[in-house]
Amino acid sequence: MLVFRLLLKNFPTLSGTGSKLPLTTIKGITPDVEERLNEEGIDSVQALATCDVENLKSERRLPYPQATVVDWKDRAALAVYFSDPEELEALHGLGMCSYSALKEYQKKVAAKPAILENVD
To answer: Are 84 and 53 in contact (CB under 8 A)?
Structure first.
């Protein structure tokens, strides 16, 4: 499967480019949360993936815990690279719901490539 070959790539720095995915693509972001983020100029998964969390929390006083916003950003970063719902679902099935989880999996595969032999 192509998605697993992509796991071995080094991903570039996020640029925020690409098609706009709705924020509700990210687990935990409801339409109400999406509306609040929109008010702060975060109108897509790409915008969330590239936002400055500290700026959002300090200057704009989002009513969500910083750890939650950081988690949403991490999940958004994964969705930037794997915007296809089937690819995202496959990654989630492997326990990779965030960009940092993907990077950890990448390290494991680099150290032990046989891991990929058990992936359908």
So the answer is: no
The amino acid that residue 112 corresponds to is: K
Residue 32 neighbours by CB distance under 10 Å? 8
Residues ≥6 apart with Cβ < 8 Å to 37: 23, 29, 43, 48, 62
Q: 102-117, pLDDT tens digit by residue?
A: 888 888 888 887 877 6
- Which residues, including other chains, have CB under 8 Å from residue 11's CB and lie 6 or more apart? 81, 99
pTM above 0.85, yes or no: no
User: Is pLDDT above 80 for 61?
Assistant: no
Q: What is the DSSP letter of 31?
A: H
Total residue count of the chain as it appears in this document? 120
